[in-house]
Specification:
The chain is 34% helix and 20% strand. It is an alpha/beta fold and 416 residues long. It folds into two domains: 244 residues, Peroxisomal Thiolase, Chain A, domain 1 (3-Layer(aba) Sandwich); 150 residues, 3-Layer(aba) Sandwich (Peroxisomal Thiolase, Chain A, domain 1).
C-alpha cells in the first residue's frame, strides 16, 4: 500500500463546563483551591474495609452524601462511582450554561471512563452469596457494577439521547474518554459531549492484589505524605475516588449560543505498548507515540507546550519512564506537575480529573504544585513544580496518561 496516511483537518473542541468531585474538594472551585494550596489538604483516611492490609488508607471524599444531592430513590439505583459522575456532570452542565430541559438531547453524547466500575458492590454481593445464599443476592448487581453504569446514569439524569459510551482502558480511561469525545465532535456526530472519568474502588480484594503487586504505598505511619510523585523516596501510589467531567462542544455550537470557552481540546493521541499487562515499556515508546500523535493532531510544535499535567503516579519506575519521555519530546521548558498527591490515584477517573485541572491551569496561568516532593529524584530530567503553585505564561498544555495493559493517551489543550 502506498501514499500518505489519512490525516484529518485540525479540530479543537471547546471546553465550556467543568465538574469535579475529589478528595481535595467537592466542586470545581473547592478542588482547584486545594490543589493550588489555597485550601486544606485532602482527606487521606484509614478505611476499616482495608484493615490488616499493608495499605489500609485511601483518598476519600468527605462531607458529601450522594443521597442528599440525588435523592434516596435515585441514589439507590447507582453504585458510588456513578453517583459521583452524576454529581460532577450536573456541575459541568450548569457551569457551561446549558439547560437539559431546553437542549436537543439527540445531539448530546456522554462518554465516561472507568477502570473497575462498581467493584465494591460486586465484592459485597459475593460475600452475600457465600454467607446467605443465592436468593439473597441483589438483582441490581449487573446494572450497578458494569463499567458503563456511570455513562448510563449521566445520560439518563441529563436526558442525553445521543451516543452514550463507556471507556475502560485502565488508568488512561478518563483521558481516552475525552479523546473519544473530541473525535465525536470532529465528525459532527453530536454538538455537545459530557466526557471524563469516574471511579470509587474501596475494594479489599483490589487493594490486597495491589499490595501483592507492590504498586501501592505502604507508608501507613503518614498516609498524607505517602503519595509523592517524582520524589526520590516514592514507594507506590495511593488509591483515590472521584469524578472529573467536561462539557465539550463543537466550536460553532459554543459560539452560536455565546458560551464562555475555558479552553480547547486541540489534539488527541493514543498508542499501545504491547509490552506487559502491568509494566510500561521501559523506553516509554508507547506514551511517546501517543504524545507525538496528539501534537500532530493539534498542529502544535513541541516547543509551544508550556505545561504538562503528568500521569505521575508515585511509582518508582513509571515516574522516571514518563519524565524521561517528556524531556525527550518536549525538552526542559514545560512546567510539569502531578496532582495525584492531592487527589490520589483515581484510576479510570484520573484523566478526567487531571484534564479538568489542566484546563484550569491554562485559564489561570497557574501550575499546581506536586505536593510531598521533599527530595526530588535527581534522575528526573524535567522541571517539576513543587511546594508552591507557580505562575507561568503558556498558551498550550499537555495531559498524559498511562494504563495497565500498555494503554497510553495524550491530550493537547490550548487557551481560547
Amino acid at each position: 500500500m502506498t501514499g500518505r496516511p489519512y490525516r484529518p483537518e485540525p479540530f479543537a473542541a471547546a471546553v465550556t463546563g467543568i465538574g469535579l468531585v475529589t478528595a481535595a474538594g467537592t466542586g470545581t472551585g473547592a478542588t482547584w483551591s486545594a490543589v493550588t494550596g489555597a485550601a486544606d489538604p485532602p482527606s487521606v483516611l484509614h478505611r476499616p474495609e482495608l484493615d490488616g492490609l499493608p495499605c489500609d488508607f485511601m483518598y476519600t471524599i468527605t462531607g458529601l452524601d450522594p443521597r442528599t444531592v440525588l435523592g434516596v430513590a435515585t441514589a439507590r439505583l447507582m453504585d458510588r462511582f456513578s453517583q459521583l459522575a452524576v454529581i460532577a456532570a450536573r456541575e459541568a452542565v450548569a457551569d457551561a450554561g446549558l439547560d437539559p430541559l431546553l437542549w436537543d438531547g439527540g445531539r448530546v453524547a456522554v462518554v465516561i471512563g472507568s477502570a473497575h466500575g462498581g467493584l465494591p458492590f460486586y465484592d459485597e454481593q459475593h460475600a452475600v452469596l457465600a454467607e446467605r445464599g443465592a436468593r439473597r443476592v441483589s438483582p441490581k448487581l449487573a446494572p450497578l457494577t458494569v463499567v458503563n453504569g456511570a455513562a448510563s446514569s449521566v445520560a439518563t439524569d441529563l436526558g442525553a439521547l445521543g451516543p452514550s459510551q463507556a471507556v475502560s482502558t485502565a488508568c488512561s480511561s478518563g483521558t481516552v474518554a475525552i479523546g473519544t469525545a473530541h473525535q465525536m465532535l470532529r465528525t459532527g456526530a453530536c454538538d455537545v459531549v459530557v466526557a471524563g472519568g469516574a471511579e470509587s474502588v474501596c475494594s479489599r480484594l483490589l487493594i490486597a492484589s495491589a499490595c501483592q503487586l507492590k504498586a501501592v504505598s505502604t507508608r501507613r505511619e503518614d498516609p498524607g505524605a505517602a503519595c509523592r510523585p517524582f520524589d526520590l523516596h516514592r514507594d507506590g501510589f495511593v488509591v483515590g475516588e472521584g469524578a472529573g467531567l467536561l462539557v465539550m462542544e463543537r466550536p460553532e455550537h459554543a459560539r452560536a449560543r455565546g458560551a464562555t470557552v475555558r479552553a480547547h481540546i486541540a489534539g488527541y493521541g493514543a498508542a499501545c505498548d504491547a509490552y506487559s499487562a502491568v509494566a510500561p515499556d521501559p523506553g516509554g515508546r508507547g506514551v511517546e507515540r501517543a504524545l507525538r500523535a496528539a501534537l500532530a493532531d493539534a498542529g502544535i510544535d513541541a516547543r509551544d507546550i508550556g505545561h504538562v499535567n503528568a500521569h505521575g503516579t508515585s511509582t518508582v519506575s513509571n515516574d522516571l519512564i514518563e519524565a524521561t519521555m517528556l524531556h525527550r519530546v518536549l525538552g526542559e521548558h514545560p512546567l510539569v506537575t502531578s496532582t495525584k498527591a492531592m487527589t490520589g490515584h483515581t484510576l479510570g477517573a484520573a484523566g478526567g480529573i487531571e484534564t479538568a485541572l489542566t484546563v484550569l491551569a491554562l485559564q489561570h496561568q497557574l501550575v499546581p504544585p506536586t505536593v510531598n516532593l521533599d527530595a526530588p529524584d535527581p534522575a528526573v530530567p524535567v522541571d517539576v513544580v513543587s511546594k508552591e503553585a507557580r505562575r507561568g505564561t503558556f498558551d498550550a498544555a499537555v495531559k498524559t496518561s498511562l494504563g495497565f495493559g500498555g494503554h497510553n493517551a495524550a491530550l493537547v489543550l490550548t487557551r481560547p
